[in-house]
Amino acid sequence: MSVEPQVADWAIGLARRLAALPDVRMREAVLLDYVQRTAAGDAAAVLDQIRCRGGHGGPPFSVALLALAHLLDGDRLEYAQLAELYRAAKERELEGLTRLLLSGLPAQRSEVSDAGPERELTLGHRKTLARSGSGEALQRLLRRPEPEVLPHLLQNPRVVERDVVRLAARRPTEPALQRVILRSGRWGARHAVKRALVLNPYTPTELSLRLLGFLARSDLQLVAETATLATDLREAAAQLLGRR
User: Fold this and answer.
1) Is residue 106 part of a domain?
2) Can you tell me the mean pLDDT for 215-243?
3) Would you give the DSSP letter of residue 139?
4) Is residue 139 part of a domain?
């Protein structure tokens, strides 16, 4: 489908504006303001351009696509606005965008154990330990993460990418933990982390769908062929693979 020149100009302008901001939360706020101020049809067309071009990698569109994933994953976009965007995307036959806007399958419940000596500490103490801990205490927190503590753990300078990838790939896990990992300013943009999130069947399907555009062809092939992943996710990966 050809793209109107005006839509392409709007999309590059918005993507550059978002990429110029230093923090993902600032980008999310600016993108939310854009959606709220723009007619649903125009906003849908621009967001679809960000989705399409962000999947090819590199700024400014990859940065804008991550901001879109964060916005759709949070609760700042009201349901009525989301529904209006969805209707506009359907009317314009923007299939890729409609998949992003749709909710995924119900999240799988976790049976993660809460056992561990750190659980005897207060929540405040566990947060402090997560930010500055080291050695075996840090490793125990990584093995038994909590949604309230994980944001602090991801800021610990002793935590490295392989730790976060292991967290993202952990099975079973809680949907809330996967969302915290993605929203981490330090780690959410890492390709290896996004790949691990998508390939984990315990990651909420709607979150994984929003990350497909960041994956390489080989990763998409793996998603499409992994039987433990949701059917919606596998089909979307196969469709995206066919267009690259």
Assistant:
1) no
2) 94
3) H
4) yes
From the number of C-beta atoms within 10 Å of its C-beta (0-12, 13-18, 19+), residue 144 rates as middle
SS3 194: helix
Q: What is the pLDDT of residues 49-74, one digit of tens each?
A: 999 898 776 789 989 998 898 888 77
Closest CA to 221 of 208, 234, 203: 234
Question: Does any domain span residue 161?
Answer: yes
Vertex 224: Cα angle to 95 and 28 (nearest 5): 50
For residues 137 and 233, membership in a common domain is answered with yes
Q: Which of 167, 237, 231, 239 is nearest to 200 (CA)?
A: 167
Amino acid of residue 91: E
The pair of structure tokens assigned to 242 is 């066919």
Domain presence at residue 107:
no
| Residue 78: pLDDT band with limits 50, 70, 90 | confident
d(CA 173, CA 168): 9
> How crowded is residue 106: how many other Cβ atoms within 10 Å of its Cβ?
9
Q: Quote the pTM value.
A: 0.67
Range of the domain at 20: 5-101
Average pLDDT of span 184-210: 94
Instruction: Supply the pLDDT for residue 115.
Output: 44
Listed residue (31, 11, 12) closest to 21, CA to CA = 31
Q: Is there a single domain that holds both residue 139 and residue 97?
A: no
pLDDT at 228 over 80: yes
Q: How many domains does the chain have?
A: 2
For residues 17 and 123, state if they share a domain.
no
- For residue 174, what is the DSSP state? -
pLDDT in tens, 86-129: 999 999 999 888 888 874 323 344 444 444 444 456 788 788 88
